[in-house]
From TrEMBL:
Residues 164-254 form the PDZ domain. Keywords: Hydrolase, Membrane, Metalloprotease, Protease, Transmembrane, Transmembrane helix, Zinc. Its cofactor is Zn(2+). The chain crosses the membrane at residues 144-166, 366-386, 428-450. Belongs to the peptidase M50B family. The keyword Transmembrane applies. The lineage of its organism: Bacteria, Bacillati, Actinomycetota, Actinomycetes, Propionibacteriales. This is M50 family metallopeptidase. It is a multi-pass membrane protein.
Length: 456
Protein backbone atom coordinates (compact mmCIF):
# COMPACT_ATOMS: atom_id res chain seq x y z
CA UNK A 1 0.00 0.00 0.00
CA UNK A 2 1.52 3.33 -1.11
CA UNK A 3 0.86 6.12 1.43
CA UNK A 4 0.77 8.78 -1.26
CA UNK A 5 -1.78 6.92 -3.39
CA UNK A 6 -3.81 6.11 -0.27
CA UNK A 7 -3.89 9.81 0.64
CA UNK A 8 -4.84 10.80 -2.90
CA UNK A 9 -7.72 8.31 -2.84
CA UNK A 10 -9.03 9.68 0.45
CA UNK A 11 -8.67 13.29 -0.71
CA UNK A 12 -10.46 12.54 -3.99
CA UNK A 13 -13.37 10.92 -2.19
CA UNK A 14 -13.69 13.67 0.43
CA UNK A 15 -13.56 16.44 -2.19
CA UNK A 16 -16.10 14.60 -4.35
CA UNK A 17 -18.50 14.25 -1.40
CA UNK A 18 -18.00 17.90 -0.41
CA UNK A 19 -18.75 18.92 -4.00
CA UNK A 20 -21.87 16.75 -3.90
CA UNK A 21 -22.95 18.41 -0.65
CA UNK A 22 -22.37 21.84 -2.15
CA UNK A 23 -24.42 21.00 -5.24
CA UNK A 24 -27.13 19.50 -3.02
CA UNK A 25 -27.46 22.80 -1.17
CA UNK A 26 -27.47 24.72 -4.46
CA UNK A 27 -30.41 22.51 -5.42
CA UNK A 28 -32.28 24.09 -2.50
CA UNK A 29 -30.95 27.63 -2.77
CA UNK A 30 -31.39 28.32 -6.49
CA UNK A 31 -35.14 27.53 -6.68
CA UNK A 32 -35.72 29.22 -3.30
CA UNK A 33 -34.24 32.45 -4.62
CA UNK A 34 -35.99 32.02 -7.98
CA UNK A 35 -39.35 31.89 -6.15
CA UNK A 36 -38.54 35.07 -4.23
CA UNK A 37 -37.46 33.41 -1.00
CA UNK A 38 -34.74 34.93 1.17
CA UNK A 39 -31.61 32.82 1.70
CA UNK A 40 -29.29 34.28 4.33
CA UNK A 41 -26.69 31.50 4.57
CA UNK A 42 -25.09 28.85 2.36
CA UNK A 43 -22.57 26.68 4.18
CA UNK A 44 -20.72 23.44 3.55
CA UNK A 45 -19.99 21.63 6.81
CA UNK A 46 -21.01 22.20 10.42
CA UNK A 47 -19.38 23.63 13.51
CA UNK A 48 -17.00 26.61 13.64
CA UNK A 49 -16.75 28.75 10.53
CA UNK A 50 -13.46 28.35 8.63
CA UNK A 51 -14.21 30.89 5.92
CA UNK A 52 -17.18 32.96 4.81
CA UNK A 53 -18.02 35.85 2.52
CA UNK A 54 -21.12 38.01 2.32
CA UNK A 55 -22.52 38.38 -1.19
CA UNK A 56 -25.68 40.43 -1.25
CA UNK A 57 -28.06 39.11 1.38
CA UNK A 58 -26.43 35.64 1.49
CA UNK A 59 -23.37 34.58 3.47
CA UNK A 60 -21.38 31.84 1.72
CA UNK A 61 -18.88 29.79 3.70
CA UNK A 62 -17.18 26.61 4.84
CA UNK A 63 -17.30 25.13 8.34
CA UNK A 64 -14.85 22.89 10.14
CA UNK A 65 -16.72 19.57 10.19
CA UNK A 66 -17.30 18.32 6.60
CA UNK A 67 -20.22 16.03 7.41
CA UNK A 68 -23.00 17.89 5.64
CA UNK A 69 -24.16 21.37 4.75
CA UNK A 70 -27.14 23.69 4.89
CA UNK A 71 -28.83 26.75 3.47
CA UNK A 72 -30.79 29.10 5.69
CA UNK A 73 -34.10 29.90 4.04
CA UNK A 74 -35.96 32.51 6.05
CA UNK A 75 -39.42 31.65 7.35
CA UNK A 76 -39.29 27.84 7.37
CA UNK A 77 -41.47 27.74 10.50
CA UNK A 78 -44.77 29.61 10.58
CA UNK A 79 -45.90 31.39 13.74
CA UNK A 80 -48.47 29.53 15.84
CA UNK A 81 -51.96 30.95 15.58
CA UNK A 82 -52.17 31.47 19.34
CA UNK A 83 -48.78 33.23 19.38
CA UNK A 84 -49.33 35.47 16.38
CA UNK A 85 -49.81 39.06 17.54
CA UNK A 86 -51.47 40.12 14.34
CA UNK A 87 -54.93 41.44 13.60
CA UNK A 88 -55.87 40.20 10.16
CA UNK A 89 -58.64 42.82 9.77
CA UNK A 90 -56.61 45.66 11.24
CA UNK A 91 -52.94 44.98 10.46
CA UNK A 92 -50.26 47.22 11.93
CA UNK A 93 -47.50 48.86 9.91
CA UNK A 94 -44.20 50.44 10.90
CA UNK A 95 -43.07 53.92 9.92
CA UNK A 96 -41.75 52.62 6.60
CA UNK A 97 -45.06 51.04 5.69
CA UNK A 98 -44.03 47.44 6.39
CA UNK A 99 -46.54 45.12 8.00
CA UNK A 100 -45.66 44.30 11.60
CA UNK A 101 -45.66 40.66 12.73
CA UNK A 102 -44.67 39.83 16.29
CA UNK A 103 -44.16 36.52 18.03
CA UNK A 104 -44.97 36.21 21.71
CA UNK A 105 -42.91 33.78 23.84
CA UNK A 106 -45.30 32.68 26.54
CA UNK A 107 -45.36 28.87 26.48
CA UNK A 108 -44.91 26.24 29.16
CA UNK A 109 -44.05 22.55 28.96
CA UNK A 110 -40.83 21.03 27.64
CA UNK A 111 -41.84 20.29 24.04
CA UNK A 112 -44.04 23.35 23.82
CA UNK A 113 -41.14 25.50 24.95
CA UNK A 114 -38.79 23.83 22.44
CA UNK A 115 -41.20 24.62 19.62
CA UNK A 116 -41.68 28.16 20.90
CA UNK A 117 -37.94 28.74 21.12
CA UNK A 118 -37.47 27.36 17.60
CA UNK A 119 -40.12 29.73 16.25
CA UNK A 120 -38.56 32.68 18.06
CA UNK A 121 -35.08 31.78 16.75
CA UNK A 122 -36.50 31.50 13.24
CA UNK A 123 -38.16 34.90 13.42
CA UNK A 124 -35.06 36.65 14.70
CA UNK A 125 -33.78 36.48 11.10
CA UNK A 126 -36.86 38.17 9.67
CA UNK A 127 -36.65 41.87 8.96
CA UNK A 128 -39.32 44.37 7.96
CA UNK A 129 -40.17 43.79 4.32
CA UNK A 130 -39.53 40.04 4.44
CA UNK A 131 -43.16 39.13 5.08
CA UNK A 132 -43.88 38.14 1.48
CA UNK A 133 -40.58 36.24 1.10
CA UNK A 134 -41.11 33.70 3.87
CA UNK A 135 -40.78 30.05 2.92
CA UNK A 136 -43.92 28.90 4.72
CA UNK A 137 -46.00 31.37 2.65
CA UNK A 138 -44.88 29.90 -0.68
CA UNK A 139 -47.32 27.86 -2.74
CA UNK A 140 -47.14 24.19 -1.83
CA UNK A 141 -45.66 23.20 -5.19
CA UNK A 142 -42.89 25.77 -4.80
CA UNK A 143 -42.05 24.28 -1.40
CA UNK A 144 -41.87 20.82 -2.95
CA UNK A 145 -39.53 22.02 -5.69
CA UNK A 146 -37.26 23.83 -3.22
CA UNK A 147 -36.99 20.91 -0.80
CA UNK A 148 -36.79 18.22 -3.50
CA UNK A 149 -34.11 20.18 -5.36
CA UNK A 150 -31.31 19.05 -3.05
CA UNK A 151 -31.76 15.28 -3.15
CA UNK A 152 -32.71 15.46 -6.82
CA UNK A 153 -29.28 16.96 -7.53
CA UNK A 154 -27.67 13.98 -5.78
CA UNK A 155 -29.68 11.59 -7.94
CA UNK A 156 -28.62 13.51 -11.06
CA UNK A 157 -24.96 13.36 -10.01
CA UNK A 158 -25.31 9.61 -9.56
CA UNK A 159 -27.05 9.28 -12.93
CA UNK A 160 -24.40 11.17 -14.89
CA UNK A 161 -21.53 9.31 -13.22
CA UNK A 162 -23.18 5.93 -13.84
CA UNK A 163 -24.00 6.93 -17.42
CA UNK A 164 -20.38 7.93 -18.05
CA UNK A 165 -19.05 4.68 -16.59
CA UNK A 166 -21.59 2.45 -18.36
CA UNK A 167 -21.11 4.26 -21.67
CA UNK A 168 -17.31 4.45 -21.71
CA UNK A 169 -16.17 1.54 -19.56
CA UNK A 170 -19.24 -0.66 -19.51
CA UNK A 171 -20.58 -3.05 -16.93
CA UNK A 172 -18.01 -5.78 -16.46
CA UNK A 173 -19.00 -8.95 -14.71
CA UNK A 174 -17.09 -12.21 -14.38
CA UNK A 175 -19.03 -15.08 -15.90
CA UNK A 176 -18.15 -18.78 -15.81
CA UNK A 177 -16.97 -20.17 -19.10
CA UNK A 178 -19.68 -22.01 -21.04
CA UNK A 179 -19.95 -25.79 -20.92
CA UNK A 180 -18.86 -28.25 -18.28
CA UNK A 181 -16.98 -26.32 -15.55
CA UNK A 182 -13.22 -26.26 -15.73
CA UNK A 183 -11.72 -25.74 -12.27
CA UNK A 184 -9.65 -22.59 -11.92
CA UNK A 185 -8.81 -22.73 -8.19
CA UNK A 186 -9.13 -25.30 -5.42
CA UNK A 187 -9.19 -24.15 -1.80
CA UNK A 188 -6.80 -26.06 0.46
CA UNK A 189 -8.88 -25.26 3.56
CA UNK A 190 -12.27 -23.91 4.58
CA UNK A 191 -11.98 -20.21 5.48
CA UNK A 192 -15.11 -18.45 6.79
CA UNK A 193 -16.62 -16.03 4.29
CA UNK A 194 -16.01 -13.00 6.50
CA UNK A 195 -12.31 -13.92 6.73
CA UNK A 196 -11.67 -14.58 3.06
CA UNK A 197 -8.34 -13.28 1.80
CA UNK A 198 -6.16 -14.70 4.55
CA UNK A 199 -3.94 -17.77 4.34
CA UNK A 200 -4.93 -21.14 5.72
CA UNK A 201 -4.24 -21.67 9.42
CA UNK A 202 -3.45 -24.95 11.12
CA UNK A 203 -6.87 -24.90 12.77
CA UNK A 204 -8.74 -24.57 9.46
CA UNK A 205 -10.32 -27.83 8.23
CA UNK A 206 -9.26 -29.06 4.78
CA UNK A 207 -11.57 -28.14 1.91
CA UNK A 208 -13.73 -31.03 0.61
CA UNK A 209 -12.56 -30.45 -2.98
CA UNK A 210 -8.91 -30.72 -1.97
CA UNK A 211 -9.64 -33.89 -0.01
CA UNK A 212 -11.38 -35.36 -3.07
CA UNK A 213 -8.23 -34.84 -5.14
CA UNK A 214 -9.55 -32.07 -7.38
CA UNK A 215 -6.95 -29.76 -8.91
CA UNK A 216 -6.94 -26.73 -11.24
CA UNK A 217 -7.66 -27.71 -14.83
CA UNK A 218 -9.95 -30.64 -13.95
CA UNK A 219 -13.28 -30.75 -15.80
CA UNK A 220 -16.22 -31.80 -13.59
CA UNK A 221 -18.65 -33.97 -15.50
CA UNK A 222 -20.87 -35.45 -12.78
CA UNK A 223 -21.93 -34.73 -9.19
CA UNK A 224 -23.64 -37.46 -7.17
CA UNK A 225 -24.72 -39.20 -10.34
CA UNK A 226 -26.14 -36.08 -12.01
CA UNK A 227 -24.49 -35.14 -15.28
CA UNK A 228 -23.14 -31.58 -15.04
CA UNK A 229 -23.88 -29.20 -17.92
CA UNK A 230 -22.44 -25.92 -16.59
CA UNK A 231 -21.22 -24.13 -13.50
CA UNK A 232 -24.61 -22.75 -12.45
CA UNK A 233 -26.04 -26.27 -12.28
CA UNK A 234 -23.01 -27.57 -10.34
CA UNK A 235 -23.14 -24.67 -7.91
CA UNK A 236 -26.82 -25.34 -7.20
CA UNK A 237 -26.11 -29.05 -6.64
CA UNK A 238 -23.26 -28.28 -4.21
CA UNK A 239 -25.26 -25.70 -2.22
CA UNK A 240 -28.22 -28.09 -1.93
CA UNK A 241 -26.02 -30.97 -0.80
CA UNK A 242 -25.49 -29.43 2.68
CA UNK A 243 -22.99 -31.70 4.48
CA UNK A 244 -23.89 -34.82 2.51
CA UNK A 245 -21.68 -37.30 0.69
CA UNK A 246 -20.42 -36.10 -2.68
CA UNK A 247 -19.23 -38.37 -5.49
CA UNK A 248 -17.53 -36.23 -8.13
CA UNK A 249 -16.60 -37.50 -11.60
CA UNK A 250 -14.04 -35.37 -13.42
CA UNK A 251 -11.60 -35.49 -16.32
CA UNK A 252 -7.88 -34.77 -16.05
CA UNK A 253 -5.74 -34.86 -19.20
CA UNK A 254 -8.51 -36.74 -20.97
CA UNK A 255 -8.72 -39.45 -18.29
CA UNK A 256 -11.94 -39.84 -16.28
CA UNK A 257 -11.49 -40.01 -12.52
CA UNK A 258 -13.75 -40.16 -9.46
CA UNK A 259 -13.34 -38.39 -6.14
CA UNK A 260 -15.42 -38.93 -3.01
CA UNK A 261 -15.84 -36.47 -0.17
CA UNK A 262 -18.51 -34.74 1.92
CA UNK A 263 -19.46 -31.14 1.37
CA UNK A 264 -19.45 -28.92 4.44
CA UNK A 265 -22.07 -26.38 5.51
CA UNK A 266 -20.85 -22.78 5.39
CA UNK A 267 -22.26 -19.25 5.43
CA UNK A 268 -21.96 -18.05 1.84
CA UNK A 269 -23.50 -15.18 -0.20
CA UNK A 270 -26.31 -15.96 -2.61
CA UNK A 271 -24.32 -14.62 -5.57
CA UNK A 272 -21.70 -12.07 -6.54
CA UNK A 273 -24.38 -9.36 -6.73
CA UNK A 274 -26.45 -10.55 -3.75
CA UNK A 275 -24.38 -10.61 -0.57
CA UNK A 276 -27.17 -12.07 1.55
CA UNK A 277 -25.53 -15.01 3.32
CA UNK A 278 -27.09 -18.34 4.26
CA UNK A 279 -26.02 -21.83 5.33
CA UNK A 280 -25.30 -23.87 2.20
CA UNK A 281 -23.16 -26.75 1.05
CA UNK A 282 -19.55 -25.83 0.26
CA UNK A 283 -16.99 -27.70 -1.88
CA UNK A 284 -14.14 -25.22 -2.34
CA UNK A 285 -13.68 -24.75 -6.09
CA UNK A 286 -14.06 -21.90 -8.55
CA UNK A 287 -14.45 -22.31 -12.33
CA UNK A 288 -12.54 -20.56 -15.09
CA UNK A 289 -14.11 -17.19 -15.86
CA UNK A 290 -14.25 -14.63 -18.60
CA UNK A 291 -15.24 -10.97 -18.33
CA UNK A 292 -18.53 -10.03 -19.97
CA UNK A 293 -18.72 -6.36 -20.97
CA UNK A 294 -22.04 -4.57 -21.57
CA UNK A 295 -22.13 -0.92 -22.67
CA UNK A 296 -25.22 1.19 -22.07
CA UNK A 297 -26.70 4.63 -22.60
CA UNK A 298 -29.17 6.69 -20.56
CA UNK A 299 -32.01 4.16 -20.76
CA UNK A 300 -29.72 1.34 -19.64
CA UNK A 301 -28.44 3.59 -16.85
CA UNK A 302 -31.97 4.31 -15.64
CA UNK A 303 -32.74 0.59 -15.67
CA UNK A 304 -29.63 -0.19 -13.64
CA UNK A 305 -30.37 2.64 -11.22
CA UNK A 306 -33.89 1.31 -10.84
CA UNK A 307 -32.49 -1.95 -9.52
CA UNK A 308 -30.03 -0.07 -7.31
CA UNK A 309 -32.90 2.04 -5.96
CA UNK A 310 -34.85 -1.04 -4.93
CA UNK A 311 -31.78 -2.42 -3.16
CA UNK A 312 -31.11 0.94 -1.48
CA UNK A 313 -34.69 1.27 -0.24
CA UNK A 314 -34.50 -2.25 1.17
CA UNK A 315 -31.19 -1.33 2.83
CA UNK A 316 -32.75 1.81 4.32
CA UNK A 317 -35.45 -0.34 5.89
CA UNK A 318 -32.77 -2.49 7.50
CA UNK A 319 -30.50 0.44 8.45
CA UNK A 320 -31.21 0.47 12.23
CA UNK A 321 -30.57 -3.29 12.44
CA UNK A 322 -27.41 -3.01 10.35
CA UNK A 323 -26.08 -0.16 12.49
CA UNK A 324 -26.83 -2.21 15.60
CA UNK A 325 -24.75 -4.99 14.05
CA UNK A 326 -21.88 -2.54 13.53
CA UNK A 327 -22.18 -1.58 17.21
CA UNK A 328 -21.90 -5.24 18.21
CA UNK A 329 -18.87 -5.62 15.95
CA UNK A 330 -17.21 -2.64 17.66
CA UNK A 331 -17.40 -4.35 21.05
CA UNK A 332 -16.35 -7.71 19.59
CA UNK A 333 -19.71 -9.43 19.96
CA UNK A 334 -19.77 -10.38 16.26
CA UNK A 335 -17.86 -9.95 13.01
CA UNK A 336 -18.70 -6.92 10.91
CA UNK A 337 -20.82 -7.88 7.93
CA UNK A 338 -19.39 -7.15 4.50
CA UNK A 339 -22.62 -5.42 3.39
CA UNK A 340 -22.94 -3.24 6.49
CA UNK A 341 -23.35 0.53 5.95
CA UNK A 342 -20.35 2.84 6.10
CA UNK A 343 -19.90 6.51 6.95
CA UNK A 344 -17.96 9.09 4.97
CA UNK A 345 -14.95 7.96 7.01
CA UNK A 346 -15.44 4.38 5.82
CA UNK A 347 -15.94 5.59 2.26
CA UNK A 348 -12.71 7.55 2.44
CA UNK A 349 -10.91 4.52 3.83
CA UNK A 350 -12.21 2.31 1.03
CA UNK A 351 -11.19 4.95 -1.54
CA UNK A 352 -7.68 5.07 -0.09
CA UNK A 353 -7.29 1.29 -0.10
CA UNK A 354 -8.50 1.00 -3.69
CA UNK A 355 -6.29 3.84 -4.90
CA UNK A 356 -3.19 2.28 -3.29
CA UNK A 357 -3.75 -1.40 -4.14
CA UNK A 358 -1.48 -3.12 -6.63
CA UNK A 359 -4.17 -5.66 -7.57
CA UNK A 360 -5.95 -3.43 -10.07
CA UNK A 361 -5.09 -1.28 -13.08
CA UNK A 362 -5.39 2.50 -12.99
CA UNK A 363 -8.56 2.41 -15.08
CA UNK A 364 -10.18 -0.10 -12.74
CA UNK A 365 -9.27 2.03 -9.74
CA UNK A 366 -10.73 5.17 -11.34
CA UNK A 367 -13.93 3.39 -12.25
CA UNK A 368 -14.30 1.98 -8.74
CA UNK A 369 -13.79 5.42 -7.17
CA UNK A 370 -16.34 6.99 -9.52
CA UNK A 371 -18.87 4.26 -8.75
CA UNK A 372 -18.21 4.75 -5.03
CA UNK A 373 -19.03 8.46 -5.32
CA UNK A 374 -22.09 7.70 -7.45
CA UNK A 375 -23.30 5.13 -4.93
CA UNK A 376 -22.97 7.61 -2.06
CA UNK A 377 -24.93 10.21 -4.03
CA UNK A 378 -27.66 7.71 -4.82
CA UNK A 379 -27.94 6.80 -1.15
CA UNK A 380 -27.87 10.44 0.03
CA UNK A 381 -30.54 11.39 -2.49
CA UNK A 382 -32.91 8.57 -1.58
CA UNK A 383 -32.22 8.94 2.15
CA UNK A 384 -33.21 12.62 2.08
CA UNK A 385 -36.57 11.76 0.51
CA UNK A 386 -37.62 9.84 3.65
CA UNK A 387 -40.76 11.71 4.80
CA UNK A 388 -39.49 12.57 8.28
CA UNK A 389 -38.22 15.86 9.65
CA UNK A 390 -35.53 17.15 9.70
CA UNK A 391 -34.91 15.45 6.34
CA UNK A 392 -36.01 17.15 3.12
CA UNK A 393 -38.70 14.53 2.70
CA UNK A 394 -40.36 15.72 5.92
CA UNK A 395 -40.82 19.22 4.49
CA UNK A 396 -42.02 17.75 1.19
CA UNK A 397 -44.59 15.65 3.06
CA UNK A 398 -45.76 18.76 4.93
CA UNK A 399 -46.20 20.69 1.66
CA UNK A 400 -48.11 17.83 0.05
CA UNK A 401 -50.35 17.53 3.11
CA UNK A 402 -51.02 21.27 2.92
CA UNK A 403 -52.06 20.92 -0.74
CA UNK A 404 -54.38 18.01 0.05
CA UNK A 405 -55.92 19.73 3.07
CA UNK A 406 -56.56 22.95 1.17
CA UNK A 407 -57.90 21.06 -1.82
CA UNK A 408 -60.34 19.10 0.34
CA UNK A 409 -61.48 22.35 2.00
CA UNK A 410 -62.14 23.97 -1.37
CA UNK A 411 -64.00 20.92 -2.63
CA UNK A 412 -66.20 20.97 0.47
CA UNK A 413 -66.65 24.76 0.32
CA UNK A 414 -65.06 25.25 3.69
CA UNK A 415 -62.71 28.03 4.84
CA UNK A 416 -59.03 27.79 3.87
CA UNK A 417 -57.31 25.85 6.70
CA UNK A 418 -54.11 27.84 6.09
CA UNK A 419 -50.50 26.74 6.14
CA UNK A 420 -49.38 23.44 7.63
CA UNK A 421 -47.52 24.07 10.88
CA UNK A 422 -44.45 21.83 10.55
CA UNK A 423 -43.16 23.28 13.82
CA UNK A 424 -45.56 21.00 15.67
CA UNK A 425 -43.48 18.08 14.39
CA UNK A 426 -40.24 19.43 15.80
CA UNK A 427 -40.27 16.97 18.75
CA UNK A 428 -40.30 14.17 16.15
CA UNK A 429 -37.53 15.95 14.28
CA UNK A 430 -35.42 16.12 17.44
CA UNK A 431 -35.87 12.38 18.01
CA UNK A 432 -35.00 11.56 14.40
CA UNK A 433 -31.99 13.88 14.45
CA UNK A 434 -30.77 12.29 17.68
CA UNK A 435 -31.13 8.81 16.17
CA UNK A 436 -29.25 9.89 13.05
CA UNK A 437 -26.50 11.39 15.19
CA UNK A 438 -26.12 8.17 17.19
CA UNK A 439 -26.07 6.05 14.03
CA UNK A 440 -23.51 8.37 12.45
CA UNK A 441 -21.21 8.13 15.47
CA UNK A 442 -21.54 4.32 15.55
CA UNK A 443 -20.66 4.04 11.86
CA UNK A 444 -17.69 6.40 12.15
CA UNK A 445 -16.31 4.50 15.14
CA UNK A 446 -16.97 1.20 13.37
CA UNK A 447 -15.15 2.40 10.24
CA UNK A 448 -12.15 3.24 12.40
CA UNK A 449 -12.16 0.12 14.61
CA UNK A 450 -13.65 -2.66 12.43
CA UNK A 451 -13.57 -1.35 8.85
CA UNK A 452 -15.26 -3.08 5.94
CA UNK A 453 -12.71 -4.89 3.81
CA UNK A 454 -12.34 -4.07 0.12
CA UNK A 455 -12.51 -6.81 -2.48
CA UNK A 456 -9.46 -5.63 -4.46
Amino acid sequence: MTPLLYTLGVVFFVLAILASIGLHELGHMIPAKAFGGKVTQYFIGFGPTVWSKQVGETEYGVKAIPLGGYVKIVGMLPPAAEDLDEDAEHPQYDEDGNRVIRIRKSNTGMFTQLVSDARAAEWEHIKPGDEDRLFYRMAWWKKVIVMAGGPTVNLLIAFFIFWGVFGLYGTRTPEPDAGQPVIDTVSRCVIPYNEEGRDCAASDPPAPAYEAGLRPGDVITSFNGTSVRDWDQLRALIRANDNGRAVIVYERDGVERTGTTSTTVELRPASASDLTVSQVGFLGVTPTFHTAVVYGGPVYTLQEMGGMTVQTVEALGQLPVKVYGVGRAIVGAQEREQDSPVSIVGGGRIAGEVASTDKAQVTEKAVFLLLLVAGFNLFIGLFNFIPLLPLDGGHIAGALYEAIRRGVARARHRPDPGYVDVAKLLPVAYVVASALLVMGVVLIVGDLVVPVRTEF
